[in-house]
Please model this.
Amino acid sequence: MVGSKRNSVYSMLVLLPSLILLLIFVYGFIGNSFYVSLTDWGTGAALRENPVKNLIGFENYRRLFTGAIHERFRQDLINAIFYSLFLVTGTLGLGLFLAIMLDKGPKGENILRTVFLFPMALSFVVTGTIWRWIFSPKGGVNLIPTWFGMERGDFLWLSSREKVALFNWQSVPQIIALILFVIFAFMLYGGWKNGRRTQTIWGAVLSGLMLFYAAVLHYLLPPILPHAEFHGFSLATVGIIIAAVWQYSGYTMALYLAGLRGLPVAMYESAKMDGAGDITYYLKIAIPNMWPITLSAIVIISHISLKLFALIFSMAGADNAGTGHPSVLMYLITFRANNFAVGAAISVILFLMAALFIIPYLIQSYRARR
Amino acid sequence: MKKGLTLMITLLLLLPMVSVWAGGQQEGAAAAEETETAEVPEVKLDYGKPSGDLELFSWWAGDEAPALNALIDLYNDNYPQVEVINATVTGGSGVNAKAVLKTRMLGGDPPDSFQVHAGQELIGTWVAAERMLDLTPLFESEGWMDVIPEDLINLIGTENGIWSVPVNIHRSNVMWYIPENLDKWGVEVPQSWDEFLEIADDLEAEGVVPLSLATNWTVNHLWESVALGVLGADKYDGLWNGELSWTSEEAVEVWATLDEVLEYTNDDFSSLSWQQATDLVVGGDAAFNIMGDWAAGYMSTTLNLEPGSDYSWAASPGTEGAFMFLADSFGFPKGVKNPAAALAWLKTCGSLEGQDTFNPLKGSISSRTDSDLSKYNDYSQSAAKDFADNRIVGSLAHGVTANEGFMNDFATVMEMFLNNRNPEQAANAAQAIAIQNGIVSR
Amino acid sequence: MSQNTLRRVSPIVYIMVLVMMVIFLVPIYMALITALKNPAEIKLATAWHLPSYPYWQSFVEAYNMLLPSLRNSLVLTISGTVLSALVGSINGFVFSKNRFRGSEIVFTLFLFGMFIPYQIILIPLFQLLRAIGIYGSLYGLILAHVVYGIPITTLIFRNFYDQIPDSLVESARLDGAGFFGLYGRLFLPLSVPGFVVVGIWQFTQIWNEFLWGVTLTKQSSQPVTVGLAQLAGGQAVNWNLPMAGSFLAGFPVLLIYIFFGRYFIRGLLAGSVKE
Model:
């Protein structure tokens, strides 16, 4: 094509400013934070004009995971996983339900859609302020039972200290080993069944190693913590989860509704011809056909779940450990304890958690575009 | 296509590495400069005539704003050429304000003067970082050395200088109650924690919460009152100067007592604000509340109660004769844009007129011994009297005795304690963080 | 399904959507009645009750307190939105119609910036803003929003331009249109819906942002989310003020949302990295 070379040059010139900005603001800054996390930049003289930073390797990370003082970080990490889990299942479930209801074509769909979607347009600071009032222990939702002549509820929505599904942090390596064992065992099984020799051998070796670690080595090695430390699902997070699901279900609803409307009518009709009821149609045909939407939604929602900072901050406060999240803790450790290096380490861990979802997704969508 | 992917991943991995390297280079250069430590710079007394903008940084908003505004008005009367920019950052119990202040200082853009708790919160962070000017010449020229108690000057200074001008004194170890209600329930004000525990069951039987408590930091606030009550002033000081080990029997006893006291508090405490805890006492749902004397300001001004008759107070159990103080103060950061106006502000803060304008509105007392007590209410007058006679100790929860690192970690230890209620373990953890934050040597 | 209007909708559906609608509106109800109560009337035990008379004073007070930050947010949001939309538009044009070797890789590099947790760039960001002398001003905040907005605006515009048939581009090129001529004469005029979608998306994002607002601004340049946090986070908790403030802070985005809801949904869909 004539002038296509010139086009390429223009293209690159046009992109260059954005590219440079993103290289600095995204990749450079991530690198900088990673570097800070490997130093001892913290405590008393941290705020000097030229603070002394010595490289200390992965010491900050080691302390976060196995140091006695960072118990809150470990619970926050667990909280983060539960936040993601419940936010994803909650918004997907409720969003799908709402989408199916609207797909049935009730009158006033525009109003309904507006009602379900408007929370998403609001700032977490706005919704957090309102929900904090609704979840006051002696008001709001706890008053609802009194309408039916019952006692006022006494659940502490944001400040309960109860945790369920407890496990000992000392057994985390063992748990990880068992999970890996299951994965490698599948690999072994798959290799054996399909007659792939290398895969079978690797599967056998790795699953054997993991089993050996979990069953024998774990008990011989010194524990990662000097004392048992129990973590679990903190019930104080329930209030935050409800608020977040309320805010983002409209989003998944919009995604699913677009998906349902995008399915060919013939699909519905032929299902009906085969004698399928509505429930069968949605369960067996519509939902499996919307798998790509579900996948996108999972990625987007789980990445939103890592950005709950403002919601937690305005709903429960930064100090409320029950509702803690690594992003809030990072803020406290950096700006209150002046421990910039540990704060940076937490932000790197947060980043890696996000990358865990995002990178495979980006690679997959990159491949799909090619 | 495979190639592109590999290239992309390599790029992704390489970029952080490059910037790590670049960061290291930069650090090396900085470390080289580090070796020459200059002498501590002092404040000068002749920056010229104040004019231009003065940016004041504080977290006083809401109920506390009128006091600050009155002080700013006074300043403007004396220096009408200066435009005061009142930068307030509230929320997150001061965390937001600290975050903003720190980003600004790190960015090399200090406000002309900022509010900070007098004591280690200032010294451990800003003086240790060599970001402040020594105010000794100002204290001498203004004659503050004679009117501000020596104990206090020692707590806001180090051997290298005096670092901030205290505008007020608050008392932390105060127990608030409604006299009428106590008569109704037939209980006396407890003089010790043992006495408190004795009457607590009776109060519960009446359906009353013996001690109201609020959000997280108020538990630390309670802790320091319990510690002072259990240990006494000398041993309490010992925790901070290294004479008493955090793992000693007495220190464990503090946690054990706190454990017993917590049994008699409201369950929903961590979702209440301190005002709501005060409301519980005022409303007759709780018998006592331990809170700093800003609670007097809240009850007198916001709730319109008469001090001494509608509500009353005593030193927290076992702390009679000791005055646990905290103070707000303003310092002079290095490299401010308008030193003349900042100096004039500090003079206003320390002046008799300034303090007697600010404090009656704030509900605190003056840090000067020559203040005019007739301008203060009954509570403040009694506090001023106690401040003059009592043994003075510093507050932990409000930044006097320990640096910010310790305070933040202590909040974590408290959280751990609230979860497992194990006094031994809490004492051990407290010892560990005291070592880590340089409160005690190894 | 397009033919759904022909089918009878079961009453169960109506009951369920009605119940859901009521549940979704509870927070708005609570905020409204609390904002309209006289502060003395706000008690936990009567949290659900309607105010005995509407007390509009809270709105006036909150408005006066939020006015400077509302003004800042307006300036910040509009300039941030316009700038990032312009940058996104020309980037999208390149990625959609002027692909070159490796453009897909660059695109993927761009997209990554959408998903990072912003804590990780916080400290370097303010150091950089300070170094170039715009820390604390609205400019610094605008720059941050424009830069971190590039990935999503580029993505939305790329998806939008992908719908413009290549044949149209080819014939314009044969008529002698160059790179900029093509963009300026053909694509820009066609881009109005794209700008609306991107504009609405960026407007809500920037308007609602809190973390940078609180750390990268000075008093004189703080946005409304920070102003609201001040209102709710001060020492005394008068619930009427934060609630009234919530309404004021949420009002502009709600307005946009109600009038342009259709485009908002399109932005949502485009934001999910569809191929």
